[in-house]
Here is the input.
Amino acid sequence: MMAYRLGEIVERFGGELVGDADIRVRQVAPLSIAQAEHISFLANPKYRRQLLDTRAGAVILGTAERESTTLPRILCDNPYAYFAKVSALLNPPHVEPAGIHPTAVIDATAVVSGSASIGAFAFVGKGARVGEHAVIGAGCHLGDGVEVGEDSLLYPQVVVYQGCIIGQRAILHSGVVIGADGFGLANENGRWLKVPQIGRVVIGDDVEIGANTTVDRGALDDTVIEDGVKLDNQIQVAHNVHIGAHTAMAGCVGVAGSARIGRQCTVGGGAVILGHLEIADRVHVSAGTLITKSIRKPGEYTSVMPFSTHNDWLKNASHLRHLDKMAEKLAELERKIDELERNKP
Amino acid sequence: MMAYRLGEIVERFGGELVGDADIRVRQVAPLSIAQAEHISFLANPKYRRQLLDTRAGAVILGTAERESTTLPRILCDNPYAYFAKVSALLNPPHVEPAGIHPTAVIDATAVVSGSASIGAFAFVGKGARVGEHAVIGAGCHLGDGVEVGEDSLLYPQVVVYQGCIIGQRAILHSGVVIGADGFGLANENGRWLKVPQIGRVVIGDDVEIGANTTVDRGALDDTVIEDGVKLDNQIQVAHNVHIGAHTAMAGCVGVAGSARIGRQCTVGGGAVILGHLEIADRVHVSAGTLITKSIRKPGEYTSVMPFSTHNDWLKNASHLRHLDKMAEKLAELERKIDELERNKP
Amino acid sequence: MMAYRLGEIVERFGGELVGDADIRVRQVAPLSIAQAEHISFLANPKYRRQLLDTRAGAVILGTAERESTTLPRILCDNPYAYFAKVSALLNPPHVEPAGIHPTAVIDATAVVSGSASIGAFAFVGKGARVGEHAVIGAGCHLGDGVEVGEDSLLYPQVVVYQGCIIGQRAILHSGVVIGADGFGLANENGRWLKVPQIGRVVIGDDVEIGANTTVDRGALDDTVIEDGVKLDNQIQVAHNVHIGAHTAMAGCVGVAGSARIGRQCTVGGGAVILGHLEIADRVHVSAGTLITKSIRKPGEYTSVMPFSTHNDWLKNASHLRHLDKMAEKLAELERKIDELERNKP
Here is the structure.
């Protein structure tokens, strides 16, 4: 594992170094377990007292924390982002050697860059294209006409249905399914007719998609994931959804058909966004929240029931079914009191 | 891509043609982007004004919309279902050539129809049966004794555990797992003993199951999915669940063990249905709703907390934990007012 | 299928036999469909009347049910646990023959026990280790340095990313993904920087993980699943989560990053546990509940909105957005009534 001098790090990423520029660090670690060869960071002032006990060789701090330690330190505006860059430097991605595993099945009409890596048991369909330095993991399946951009990384057992497009520097984790049919059904006399799903999924650059997440192809138009979107695991993105650039969604989120979500939004874990609505840029949806109509203004939105002990919940929950009566009773008491007040002696 | 005359379409599917029967359409498209070679549709009168601007070559309309446009039009009772049929005509399913890919592993005792297609890296276990014209996608796994009916289509990387039965014309999307063990555990002194799951999954005809959905095998009896059921992506169906014919469930639904769900129900995205309960035919469960007990009557059922800005939510949510006290206070005020009224001068 | 004498069963598992020790049973079945060759059980006294009609050859009962039937019966303290053991005896796990399928790809530096079974199209990476009698199903992927303990069973198409550790007697169902990157992102000027995820997933002994469940690798430290944990299908366990021994979670649960969950907890289906919190031992979270802060005491916790017909819900739900005003109004009425009472004639 390579070591870097603090001086080199500050040369690359900026910030102000306080302390010995020749100290070398090999790895990142949390303050609590860091040793001399580690560089750590403090992003949240409420953990400041961990600085007192840490054995880290160096720390990355906000500029306001200059005096919070005597350790060698790098002061910067955004310590967590700085830490991300240092960690990426110290933990470069594993590079797969270029070439096609002998067990892979590549259609004769597919175009695979010479610098790409295709794993064991991978399948690349007719006319599919795999860009420079892309890695298609073992057991991945690229349908006919799929395009995977340069430097993209598909972990083992990703499936991309025919015709879908994945941009550059994508990271798709195992079990991801891109381009399965959207849930398009027409009801005729109590039975469901399938509506062919003839759109694609089009994914921009710098998108990461977590394990077992699914993104359905569009019914008529495409489903679109713009640049820089980050989706966690087990998310379901339905047909014709449009997710704006640099939006991030935590695990288990569901987004229903034709929802149009803005840029730089965040969606908390387990939230559900219903279909055929629009969400503005920079909207933040809390975990577990159900969004049932369009949101026009940036801000944070929430709809969760606070938890309590089951016994307390039992006492309170029964009233939820009678709030309307409670409101009526309140209005009636108001009227009676008004009358009593008018008749006051 | 084939083109069809409007006259031919009306001959096949009925409806009343207003306009030139010789106009040809090649593809379906939404009103907003359709061109002369496209046929479009209007299912919801609230989008009627899109008819004014569309460049579609023809449109499918409800009988009440006869005068809403001068375009060539097909009038019918159920425009969306009609559209589904026209789209299926214009977009026939891709036909996989019959035959077994040389990399597939087929047990010698399996019976694969000569007209079936078995993809690369597929595995077909002992005594498994694959019906006429069925397609087993690349990397699929059929356990011992599995049966897949005629004309069924398994997209790449579907797993069917041993002994499970899939009917005719099924569509199973990538990442589907049929027949994994149900969550059967007995607690003994704080530890869990596994209860063997010896039932199967039995799936009827014309069932579609979305990407990464899981249907567990029964503990003792079978888990049953009746004809015409449509399951979207990322759904979990637990052991011994019974889903009645032509019921449809949107993405991310969870159904707990031994729930018995009627026919022609719909379940909205992210809803959870608890176990050991019964739901009548034609029950509609709203998205995000938790069903905690049996439902005996058809109708729509809901249990969601409306969302609001986080600040408004903060103000209101604290009271949810004190509804019981609020109700008590209300009752007390009622008593006091009654007393005051009795003592009125 | 083997048959066992009731006498043999009691010798193995204890309990008191009432009736003929030479009666043989071949299989387990529910009371309602059991025949003479079946042994059944009654775990819940509320189904006692099923004992009257059953045709089971023998039954397993709690000691209090001694007189509830004249059938041959085994009396014990925990009939469901006893039943689990009998069923495991009558339904021994399918044993895969040892050996490596000729299509599997095993790195030369991997160490695979001679008694292990490696299925078709499986991939075992550099330096990976597979223990005695372990079964790696068809199409599984073990990354570099992965360890799978003795007697563990991976069903087809499980993916384990590099460096992750799985203990003994694990059962991992199809579609499980262990060790994908946690959702670690730092925001810099509206764009997301990836934080390398350099921890592992470490899974203890006797853990079962359901189909399509995902467990992410740690960001810096490891994600830890202790001994005897049971996870159902479609669960998402985020980075650096710690799940205590013998905790069980039902389907579709989401656990956010760095949550620390105690021992012998249960979590109901569809519940969501937010990150960076601690849950004590023996906490039971109800289905559909959102846990937003630490829980220090054992017990049952709930946060669900009761469902109702959609029309009733419409009437009540509007008030949820105005509870704060309702509380204010109530306080105001209280003041007015106090005043009226003070002024009473």
User: Anything to note?
Assistant: DSSP finds five helices and 40 strands in chain A. Chain A touches chain C through 77 residues (CB under 8 Å). Residues 132 and 319 of chain A are 62 Å apart (CA to CA).
